[in-house]
User: Which sequence fits this backbone?
């Protein structure tokens, strides 16, 4: 299937182009952005990123690990201090807090890898349509479409101020 | 549009149409990583050599024992612990800038966050060395970790030293993760523009980043959540370090104000270190277009604010010592200001509590040499603050029979100097290996400005 690449200068135009393309039923639309523009990512996928789920799971695992580990260890090797109880919850809050952050951060990293699809592609092989200009200051919108739709995609991209359109895979 | 004729390679189709409109930000910031000059190699060589010299002193100390470190009864926490606390403090600016200012949407952070995060990582690594250097039998330092062993022993989780281990480990891990995630889009920029071994390195580290919608979406969310996690973390780490002292009953240490006092001091010294390092870096590499005087002025304001908090804490310490009517506490604070350590105490008060007030004047806040000098003095003052707290506390505890005076030994001072070289070595290497400014985030502002014709400074 042909792959069309439109080059844009302004993020708002990219958002407009994606909206029009999706509205016309093109499913295989992808962008290459040089910088974070949440409005573009949201136009491609309206659902909030599931990374937050990983953070939550990591944090909860951390807080439970922190308390269970300290309580169990304190009772497994008992330190007798003036007849006080072996389990001393206030001091374990520090450990539980640190582990909440630690596990939360590591799970967030894992979430980035899973939901961002990283590592991406084959080693050292750029995606079709990608070029170094998209890590400069230009935006790329790629559309995979049927042969007969090439003209329409071309018109849609142009209508949204694409400054350059290429057919990468005929 | 007519489709191009078949039987041409993909590259041929792309190449003629690509008029590489290279981004100014890419060129300027990647230029920092150009082939190193002779002065660069000399500096790096000196730092590496000094780290080795300090390492040799440390090996000798392991062989000979902590006696060469000037430790003697009753003072067994000396320059090593002072320097540990100092470097942990330095490590606070990076996460503060990256996480807290991110949550507050302070866009000015974009130009300095990368270098500050790098400093955080290197400062934590430097601080972590001192946990091993300080203990008498460093080959047993892993005893601090709760690991299953044949004696059925576990660590005592009521000990602040165990809390500290957890806090520092978490902080080091989280700041490395934060630093790396921020770096990934910029590594892709470097990957697209490099050759040879650099191309391989950046291709591997960039994880195939293309800046697709899916990647940025996950990335944005990840940075947001890490900021949310790192914000309480950065406040907790120095609180936990302060509890190493405050949980004891040593006069001068046993104070509830210690946690906020230490956190403010850490941010204070961290910002000062960022300024001390970035003012020369900006000058040498000509980054004035990205790191502007506005950034330095904002950081000077931060220094002023935290100096006020630190100065207030100094005052409260003395007030409470007097107000408590506890004699050892009063003696301890009198001894600080007028005992054998009076020079250290007055350096601390003047450098941290008095000199930064020059930043009330806009002229001083915008005059780069003044900012640089003040930032160096703050670093000096903050090192002495920890010295004063730790040494004077230990040298006069309750029982006059165990009073004593401590003087740092040459071995300790060499390792102290070595710690600066260790930190400097990593930072100097970082300058040539990774983009020193977060390019993608600077570009976000550049593109916004271009699209809307406004948007403030970057």
Assistant:
């Amino acid at each position: 299937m042909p792959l069309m690449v439109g080059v844009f200068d302004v993020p708002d135009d990219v958002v407009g182009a994606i909206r029009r393309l999706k509205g016309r039923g093109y499913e295989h639309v992808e962008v290459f952005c040089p910088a974070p523009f949440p409005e573009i990512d949201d136009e491609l996928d309206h659902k909030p990123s599931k990374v937050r789920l990983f953070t939550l799971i990591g944090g909860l695992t951390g807080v439970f690990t922190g308390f269970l580990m300290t309580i169990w260890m304190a009772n497994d090797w008992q330190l007798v201090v003036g007849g006080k109880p072996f389990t001393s919850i206030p001091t374990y809050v520090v450990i539980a807090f640190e582990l909440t952050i630690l596990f939360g951060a590591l799970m967030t990293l894992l979430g980035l890898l899973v939901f961002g699809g990283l590592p991406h592609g084959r080693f050292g092989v750029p995606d079709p349509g990608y070029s170094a200009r998209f890590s400069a200051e230009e935006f790329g919108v790629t559309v995979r479409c049927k042969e007969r739709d090439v003209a329409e995609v071309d018109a849609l991209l142009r209508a949204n101020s694409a400054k350059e359109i290429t057919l990468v895979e005929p | 549009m007519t489709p191009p004729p078949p039987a041409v390679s993909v590259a041929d189709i792309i190449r003629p149409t690509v008029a590489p409109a290279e981004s100014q930000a890419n060129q300027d910031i990647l230029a920092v990583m150009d082939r190193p000059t002779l002065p660069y190699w000399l500096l790096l060589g000196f730092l590496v050599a000094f780290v080795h010299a300090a390492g040799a002193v440390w090996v000798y100390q392991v062989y000979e024992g902590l006696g060469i470190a000037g430790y003697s009864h009753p003072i067994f926490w000396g320059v090593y612990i002072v320097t540990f606390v100092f470097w942990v403090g330095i490590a606070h600016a990076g996460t503060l800038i990256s996480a807290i200012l991110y949550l507050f949407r302070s866009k000015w952070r974009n130009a300095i966050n990368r270098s500050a995060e790098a400093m955080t990582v290197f400062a934590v690594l430097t601080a972590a060395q001192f946990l091993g250097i300080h203990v008498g039998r460093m080959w047993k330092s892993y005893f601090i970790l709760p690991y299953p062993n044949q004696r059925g022993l576990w660590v005592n989780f009521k000990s602040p030293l165990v809390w500290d281990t957890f806090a520092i480990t978490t902080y080091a891990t989280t700041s490395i993760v934060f630093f790396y995630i921020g770096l990934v889009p910029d590594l892709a920029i470097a990957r697209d523009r490099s050759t040879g071994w650099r191309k391989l390195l950046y291709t591997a580290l960039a994880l195939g980043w293309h800046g697709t919608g899916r990647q940025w979406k996950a990335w944005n969310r990840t940075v947001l959540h890490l900021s949310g996690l790192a914000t309480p973390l950065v406040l907790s780490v120095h609180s936990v370090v302060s509890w190493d002292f405050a949980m004891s009953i040593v006069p001068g240490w046993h104070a509830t104000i210690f946690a906020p006092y230490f956190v403010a001091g850490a941010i204070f010294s961290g910002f000062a270190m960022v300024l001390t390092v970035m003012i020369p870096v900006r000058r040498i590499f000509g980054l004035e277009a990205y790191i502007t005087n506005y950034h330095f002025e904002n950081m000077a304001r931060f220094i002023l604010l935290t100096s006020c908090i630190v100065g207030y804490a100094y005052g409260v310490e003395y007030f409470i010592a007097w107000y408590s009517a506890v004699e050892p506490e009063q003696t301890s604070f009198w001894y600080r200001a007028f005992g054998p350590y009076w020079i250290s105490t007055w350096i601390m008060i003047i450098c941290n509590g008095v000199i930064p007030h020059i930043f009330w004047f806009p002229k001083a806040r915008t005059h780069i040499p003044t900012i640089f000098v003040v930032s160096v003095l703050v670093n000096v003052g903050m090192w002495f603050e920890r010295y004063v707290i730790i040494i004077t506390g230990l040298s006069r505890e309750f029982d006059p029979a165990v009073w004593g005076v401590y003087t740092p030994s040459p071995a300790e001072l060499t390792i102290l100097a070595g710690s600066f070289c260790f930190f400097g070595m990593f930072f100097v290497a970082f300058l040539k290996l990774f983009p020193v400014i977060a390019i993608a985030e600077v570009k976000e502002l550049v593109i916004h400005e271009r699209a809307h014709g406004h948007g403030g400074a970057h």
